[in-house]
Automatic annotation (TrEMBL):
The keyword Disulfide bond applies. The lineage of its organism: Eukaryota, Metazoa, Chordata, Craniata, Vertebrata. Pfam families: PITH (PF06201), Thioredoxin (PF00085). Residues 14-138 form the Thioredoxin domain. This is Thioredoxin like 1. It comes from Cyprinus carpio carpio.
Amino acid sequence: MCLLLSCTSTSDSSFSRLSAPPAGARPISSQKWVKVIGNDAEFQAELSGAGSRLAVVKFTMSGCRPCVRIAPAFNMLSNKYPQVVFLEVDVHVCQATAAANNISATPTFQFFRNKVRVDQYQGADASGLEEKIKQHVENDPGSNEDSDIPKGYMDLMPFVSKAGCECLNESDDCGFDNCLIKDSSYLESDCDEQLLITIAFNQPVKLFSLKLLAAELAQAPKSVKIFINLPRSMGFDDAERSEATQALDLSEEDYKDDGLIPLRYVKFQNVNSVTLFIRSNQGDEETTKVNYLTFIGTPVQATNMNDFKRVVGKKGESH
């Protein structure tokens, strides 16, 4: 990794080689090369164009040997994961972008959705970088273009901090993690129909709606109380007697089609955690099942270059 203060500059021609195909590579008609960003405005345009798709941005610098070393692998990853947008930013060419994203060393790889940074990876380890990309691709909730999520909002699953999540009365065989992925698995309650779920986010978010999917409608949640930003873990007795931020009385109709359940948006403007108390299910069954649970909304803060005051000097100056 190259610290920005210590790397020496090389000619522009040496930098241009970073985005070229690997030496000896045979051309492939479907090959997708990395988009090299020419200025700060172009960076913002590319992020906007990516929408809710994952965008991986490589911050590089001329003369940085680790950047050169990982360049062929980064190019190949762009072909291997065509659903991901791959961008390359020279920190000297796009100084405002580098400063706004707190780039202190190269290569640094940052991950964005809807212009919001969701993760970061540093160093020239190609296998480690691919593992990070795979992690986000596998948890990809899908793009707004391919779903019923309203324009301007996104599935907030990439912002869920699993370390801060908790579920009381989950089954040993069908635990909480099952409802965070879209497959045939499910979360099931244990000794009765009630569940108490806390979901933490890695940054403040605004919630627009709740998304609940349930394959077995008779066991789908019915009465649900929602709490936000609780200072401590809540027990079932506390949940019963406490006033909710919003209470839901769901019907089987709520689970048809997209499963989106509107929330009172004005009450969910700065949310760090959400607690769901599922009190009952649709068919008064012994246990409750949830196939998928997430929230639709936006992060409170998004990357916006218009809010960034230029603090860097002219191109070529040291800092």
